[in-house]
Write a structure and sequence with these properties.
Diacylglycerol kinase, alpha+beta, membrane, zinc ion binding, PKC_DAG/PE
């Protein structure tokens, strides 16, 4: 025992490139139980060697990888392909673990007794790696950093991954008997040795995954293959059957008797209409698939012939009169957007669901550009919605599409006024959301153009260039702020960039907004801002009271649900605020306490004007913080003009839900900081558990 212990210790603490491993071999890199440090609990993604061959190879070779168990090191073969890093026990392995590098950072590290080590950090995991030589380490670091500069995937690369029919594997365990769809034998239930496709739920052993055919959920007519049917009306949609592994409560749609088995792979489920049928009853089913309850939102693969030379879909079906394009920000909602991305691909055609973090909105919009009309569902925060709307501007698609919002961000002000609520964090609600989306009405959203004009630098004039103005443009969908609220937004953005883990959830984000707002109670950085700015509304100079900021509102929701205008009805002086009246509401910001109290009390004494155009002149030599829809910067002295740009068609619910509890909680958050000094105060964190209940935690 003593000799074996010494041998193990030497192997664990002194890794060398010729040292053998004293562990039994495994099928994939992590199947023996080793676990990397994870920043969030996330399903472990894996790929087969065949799937990786479709991607551009950047670099590959052997590295040592540190495990979490006693800081042991193991040799692993790494392949950097596209923006994904793969690793396995050796280069001939059939299954590789994968690490998404879309938002990764890499740096050299100093590790005791280990030379040439470096760390790779993503939002979900942290890997400690070690190279054979310093040159090899520098080559790997350079290669990993180079892929960060790739802003988008090549269209051909994306099409290969998105429409190839390949399964999207992840390692999983099973609580009930489950069987491999390849060899038909049982899968281990406790350890994560089985693989499941996140789209079609095809099950396989790791050893069998490489032998599985590319028969994931169909995307185009070409992927339907031998199942294509023809009739007098064209090409109808056939059922796509997957055998076995049915829910416990499954019943046959033909005979209404129980389906499935815990002893073998038995009976069938359609991936599209979700119908379940016995082996013996299958022939009695109709050949044409009705696509299920939400067929209006589904684009049948038989309707998508191909992508033409311009990169657009060729659609040949009357059922595609108004298809749904789903754009998901996978990093929104405390990185819970991944769940929604997976669920939408299960419910709809995977070809109509895109990840905004994987190429942006352009590819999805271009593919749908030839449809006469189509609908868009943006799953993310206000920033994601603004991103998609800006892309619609570039492609000139506003007249043919209507846009709905599934709120996953922090503020979600636009989703609130459109009637979709302040937060959706349960992917089990997606069926109801699709139903509401199909019954939604269309309203026009006013969008404004913000012009930032500043004088050219004195140095440029000295060099002989003509004196004049530099003009920069941006689009405002929600609101514009200058002074206090913009400073808080700017400091929060800086904090998030410096310490992303401290701003990784809605609760933490609101906490930091509370901290920064409380600091301003003491500092009052922009006290007497009225002496540094001038305001004109529709060309009329407006006298300003003593204030710390100005807010220009395009929608009646501000900073996570505040009705900062102080009401929704017209009175003797002003009309009712609306996002489709081509008017802007201008209000004064007196301080953090006023912003907090506005969440529950309709304050109105701070109203300044209701107008169509706003002009703000920044005086003096120093810049002032400004923000547009939460994106903040320091604006140099000059002129800011806000004028109407265009209108976008938005999908709205008739009844706007207004949660008073939400406003009370926000008030508590600000009030606690307002009463206590921000250095010794308390932090109230809150989190929704359901629509009717909240959980509170008070931390000193």
């Amino acid at each position: 025992k003593r000799v074996h212990s010494q041998r193990s210790t030497a192997a664990d603490q002194t890794p060398t490139w010729l040292q053998p491993e004293f562990q039994a071999g495994e099928e994939s890199s992590d199947s023996d139980g080793e676990q990397e440090e994870t920043l969030h609990k996330l399903i472990r993604k894996v790929s087969t060697s065949g799937q990786m061959r479709a991607k551009k190879s950047v670099k590959e070779g052997i590295l040592l990888k540190q495990t979490s168990s006693f800081q042991r090191w193991k040799r692993r073969y790494f392949k950097l392909r596209g923006r994904t890093l793969y690793y396995a026990k050796d280069c001939k392995s059939l299954i590789f673990d994968e690490v998404d590098l879309s938002d990764a950072s890499v740096a050299e590290t100093s590790t005791k007794n280990i030379n040439n080590s470096f760390t790779l950090i993503t939002p979900f995991r942290k890997l400690m790696l070690c190279a054979e030589s310093r040159k090899e380490m520098e080559d790997w670091i350079g290669a990993l950093r180079s892929v960060q500069k790739w802003e988008t995937y090549e269209a051909s690369q994306f099409n290969m991954e998105h429409f190839s029919g390949m399964h999207n594997w992840y390692a999983c365990s099973h609580a009930r008997p489950t069987f491999c769809n390849v060899c038909r034998e049982a899968l281990p239930g406790v350890t994560s040795h089985g693989l499941s496709c996140e789209v079609c739920k095809f099950k396989a052993h790791k050893r069998c995954a490489v032998r599985s055919t590319n028969n994931c959920k169909w995307t185009t007519l070409a992927s339907v293959g031998n199942d294509i049917m023809e009739d007098e009306e064209g090409v109808p949609m056939p059922h796509q059957w997957l055998e076995g592994n049915l829910p416990v409560s499954a019943k046959c749609v033909v005979c209404d008797k129980n389906c499935g088995s815990v002893r073998r792979l038995q009976d069938w489920r359609c991936l599209w209409c979700k119908d379940i049928v016995h082996n013996s009853c299958k022939e009695q089913m109709g050949k044409v698939c009705p696509l299920g309850q939400y067929r209006v939102s589904i684009i049948p693969p038989t309707a998508l012939n191909s992508i033409d030379s311009d990169g657009f879909w060729k659609a040949t079906s009357a059922s595609c009169s108004s298809p749904l394009l789903v754009l998901v920000n996978s990093k929104s909602g405390d990185n819970q957007g991944v769940k929604f991305l997976r669920k939408f691909r299960q419910l709809l055609n995977p070809a109509q669901v895109f990840d905004l973090m994987n190429g942006g909105p352009e590819l999805g919009l271009r593919l749908f550009q030839k449809f006469v009309t189509f609908r868009i569902l943006v799953c993310g925060g206000d920033g994601s919605v603004g991103w998609v709307l800006s892309e619609l501007d570039k492609l000139n698609l506003h007249k043919q599409c209507q846009l709905g919002v599934l709120p996953l961000g922090t503020g979600n002000d636009l989703a609130r006024v459109l009637g979709w609520g302040g937060l959706c964090d349960d992917d089990a609600q997606l069926l109801q959301i699709l139903e509401k989306l199909e019954r939604a009405t269309t309203k026009m959203l006013d969008r404004t153009q913000t012009f930032r004009l500043q004088e050219e630098k004195k140095l440029e004039r000295e060099e002989g260039k003509k004196s004049g103005l530099k003009v920069r443009k941006c689009v405002m969908n929600n609101y514009f702020g200058i002074g206090l609220d913009a400073k808080i937004s700017l400091e929060f953005n800086n904090k998030r960039d410096e310490h992303p883990k401290k701003c990784s959830s809605r609760t933490k984000n609101m906490m930091w907004y509370g901290v920064l707002g409380t600091k301003e109670l003491v500092q009052k950085t922009y006290k007497n801002l009225e002496q540094r700015v001038q305001l004109e509304c529709d060309g009329v100079p407006m006298p300003l009271p003593s204030l710390q900021g100005l807010a220009v509102l395009n929608i009646p929701s501000y900073a996570g649900g505040i009705n900062f205008w102080g009401g929704t009805k017209e009175d003797n002086n002003f009309g009712a605020p609306s996002f489709d009246d081509k008017k802007l509401e201008v209000v004064a910001v007196f301080g953090s306490m006023q912003m907090a109290m506005s969440r529950v009390i309709n304050l109105q004494h701070h109203r300044i004007a209701q107008c169509r155009q706003v002009k703000i002149t920044i005086l003096g030599e120093e810049g002032v913080p400004v923000q547009v829809d939460g994106e903040a910067w320091i604006q140099p002295p000059g002129i800011v003009q806000i004028v109407h740009k265009n209108r976008a068609q938005m999908l709205t619910r008739d009844r706007v839900t207004f949660n008073k509890k939400n406003h009370v909680l926000h008030t508590f958050l600000f009030a606690i900081y307002s009463i206590k000094n921000y250095t010794v105060g308390f932090i109230l964190q809150y989190e929704y558990v359901s629509h009717s209940a909240c959980a509170y935690t008070l931390f000193p």
